[in-house]
């Protein structure tokens, strides 16, 4: 069983899919591990660190690998180097990328999309969306604090008092919860909103105030999978009115709202931005999925009338060492579920919920039911 840790071809991706810790464990499971040169550098891992963990470092690492571990989906010109039938585990970014999925299928690789991991208890330690969103939520507050020209905590000094910053977190999933906790630790006064009722208690238990339109639709807004539904026009209008009133008194706004497979809901309009005072900071964590904030630009910090809108891309990558450590661990746990530990070889149960949920391509076809080519 040969496992390769690929170097990411996308220059904007500093994370890596294997760390010395996971390499050691994979070798313990009976694998030979090869790492592409420089794969871990941007995450603070040198080639020598991988070698010390028992891996070989080679530019041909992926060529004869049975399993290739990656952060991002390989490009079409990269997969031609992969062995027929090789397993590729990565963030495949499957929504709206039919041509790329077709190329993956045509290359004959067995592709697993880690972002499709079912949200069941057994798969919690394989949940890459959670591990990365948690760090993104933390980093969003750090980025906001760095852009904000004032202190966050209240400070009473002989020279005068600095008031505590008011932070508003919109969308309280994994990223939002961590953003609340981080903003609280930094001393901000925190409020938060979401459309899922389950969130209210979580927000309160973190010491923040929950603000939402709590009507009948709100009570039904959570899917069986634990995600949000797209809300009706009527609800959106009520929500916008509430947010408009609240946001003008806020110093920092962090938006994290997502609906799986849909564009991000628009929550902050240009008028709402304009109602904030100069020096305020908005961080749009949903910018890669269309954005929650009008005027947010992917990869840029835009200033509109003195209000900064931060649209960093790949926010988990801004903490590459931490995100790689957790991502690599998610992949390790997933692989453990595919390997027979006694026989020390691959033994995939194709009927397992985790395998079925994440398997994207196999035997030359896109096999996941959600991504079937349209007739
Ligand atoms: P997500 O990234 O899909 O969305 C972020 C948040 O945005 C969600 O809380 C969502 O409700 C909210 N949102 C969507 N539309 C909105 C709108 N119009 N206005 C305001 N907020 C809006 O969500 P996530 O972070 O992946 O987490 C979703 C849920 O799944 C959480 O409750 C989380 O705790 C749960 N979860 C469960 C497991 C598990 O059981 N294995 C693992 C991870 C997360």
Structure description:
The chain is of the alpha/beta class and 375 residues long. It has helices spanning 20-28, 47-52, 76-79, 98-106, 128-147, 174-185, 199-205, 216-219, 233-247, 270-275, 320-336, 353-358, and strands at residues 2-5, 32-35, 56-57, 67-72, 87-91, 110-113, 155-157, 160-162, 166-170, 189-193, 209-210, 252-255, 281-284, 301-304, 307-310, 339-340, 345-346, 359-362, 365-366. The strands form four sheets. It has an eight-stranded mixed sheet, with helices on both faces. Strands 11-10-9-12-13-15-14 form a seven-stranded mixed sheet, covered by helices on one side. The protein binds nicotinamide-adenine-dinucleotide (NAD). Nicotinamide-adenine-dinucleotide binds next to α5 and α6.
What spatial order of strands do you see in the largest sheet? 3-2-1-4-5-6-18-19
* Helical segment count: 12
What ions, cofactors and ligands are bound? nicotinamide-adenine-dinucleotide
Which descriptor suits the 3D outline? globular
Q: What is the structural class?
A: alpha/beta
Largest sheet: 8 strands, mixed
Task: Tell me roughly what share of residues is in helical segments.
Answer: 25-40%
Portion in strands: 15-25%
Brief descriptors of the model:
alpha/beta, seven-stranded mixed beta sheet, 12 helices, 375 residues, eight-stranded mixed beta sheet, 18% strand
């Amino acid at each position: 069983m040969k496992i390769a840790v690929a170097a990411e071809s996308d220059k904007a991706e500093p994370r890596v899919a294997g760390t010395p810790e996971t390499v050691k464990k994979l070798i313990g499971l009976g694998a030979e591990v090869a790492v592409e040169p420089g794969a871990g550098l941007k995450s603070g891992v040198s080639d020598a660190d991988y070698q010390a963990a028992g891996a070989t470092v080679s530019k041909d690492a992926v060529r004869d690998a049975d399993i290739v571990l990656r952060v991002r989906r390989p490009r079409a010109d990269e997969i031609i180097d992969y062995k027929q039938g090789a397993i590729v585990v990565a963030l495949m970014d499957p929504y709206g990328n039919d041509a790329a999925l077709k190329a993956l299928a045509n290359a004959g690789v067995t592709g697993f999309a880690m972002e499709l991991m079912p949200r069941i208890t057994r798969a919690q330690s394989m949940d890459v969306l959670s591990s990365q969103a948690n760090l993104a939520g933390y980093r969003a507050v750090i980025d906001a604090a760095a852009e904000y020209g004032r202190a966050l905590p209240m400070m009473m000094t002989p020279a005068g008092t600095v008031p505590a910053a008011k932070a508003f977190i919109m969308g309280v999933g994994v990223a939002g919860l961590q953003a609340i906790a981080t903003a609280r630790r930094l001393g901000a006064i925190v409020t938060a909103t979401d459309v899922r009722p389950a969130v209210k208690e979580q927000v309160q238990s973190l010491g923040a105030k929950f603000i939402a339109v709590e009507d009948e639709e709100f009570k039904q807004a959570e899917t069986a999978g634990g995600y949000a539904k797209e809300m009706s026009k009527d609800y959106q209008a009520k929500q916008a009115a509430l947010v408009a009133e609240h946001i003008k008194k806020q110093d920092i706004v962090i938006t994290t709202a997502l609906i799986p497979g849909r564009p991000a809901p628009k929550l902050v309009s240009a008028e709402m931005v304009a109602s904030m005072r100069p020096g305020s900071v908005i961080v749009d964590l949903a910018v890669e999925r269309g954005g929650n904030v009008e005027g947010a630009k992917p990869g840029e910090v835009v200033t509109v009338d003195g209000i900064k809108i931060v649209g960093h891309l790949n926010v988990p990558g801004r903490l590459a060492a931490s995100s790689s450590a957790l991502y690599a661990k998610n992949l390790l746990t997933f692989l453990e579920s595919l390997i027979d530990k006694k026989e020390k070889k691959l033994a995939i149960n194709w009927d397992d919920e985790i395998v079925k949920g994440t398997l994207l391509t196999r035997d030359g076809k896109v096999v996941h039911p959600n991504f079937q080519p349209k007739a």
